[in-house]
Amino acid sequence: MAATVRYDEVEQGQEIPAADYQVRRANLVMYAGASGDFNPIHWNERFAKAVGLPDVIAHGMYTMAQAGRFLTDWAGDPGAVVDYGVRFSSMVVVPDDDEGATITVSGVVEEKLDDKRVLVGLTARSGDSRVLSRARAVVQLS
Amino acid sequence: MALNRDFVGRASAPSPPYEVSRVKIKEFAAAIGDNNPVYRDREAAQAAGHPDVIAPPTFPIVFSLSGGSILADPELGLNFAMVVHGEQRFEYHRPIHAGDELVSVSTVTDIRSVGRNELITVRSDVTTVDGESVCTTYNTIVERGGAS
Prior knowledge:
The complex is a heterodimer.
Chain A: E1 15-23, H1 25-35, H2 45-50, H3 60-75, E2 81-88, E3 101-112, E4 117-126, E5 129-140
Chain B: E1 18-19, H1 22-31, H2 42-47, H3 68-71, E2 83-92, E3 101-114, E4 117-128, E5 133-143
Pfam family, one (chain A): MaoC_dehydratas
GO molecular function (chain A): fatty acid synthase activity
Protein name (chain A): Acyl dehydratase
């Protein structure tokens, strides 16, 4: 149970290369089922538009999960994440087509903390919008 | 409609124990598109030093919202049709793995207006049935137009 990234080999300001994650309507249906969040704004275009949204939007937690995946893929051990928080700053609109939307996640080691921990800042964008802000995690490195 | 500020400080009763299963973790990992074997294969998880398959970082959202019972109280005045997620944070005291039996207690910590929106924050303290602290979650939801 340990991160594959070594604290001594990480520098403050170090960037974690960006990765793209597709989100299609089917992903939102799966996420609704797995998470238990069946709010129709995440799967019913008619309902979403009736409550003033541009279209079906992704669950914020789906986007947070993609940034979490980015983080755990970097750290090498999901158990190494000791704190993870985000603000949902913009919606991920998911059109009803084969492409869906793309969430692009990147990261930077903002600070080296005590006890071989680091503060990682995450950026998530979809289209022209920054969809997460104040997205930060504390990761226990080796 | 403005949310009822009297709810700040109100706590839920402890949730019934939630039993974390390998099947649910696998389903959740599939839903977020994460193929990491430590979410699917006990041997892979054990090879990585875990007692069983472990849960992805955002998995506690599945069970931590026993605060739902508070949010659904008509006296609070929350219109679910206008709700979107504002902020979410998890503090992990240890990884969650299959076999854990977890109890959540949720407390409304804040209700405030931002522009035309109402924001309500719920903290959930998640422990094992034996009282071991597992994680603390902070969930802020936004009721669009609630303050107008």
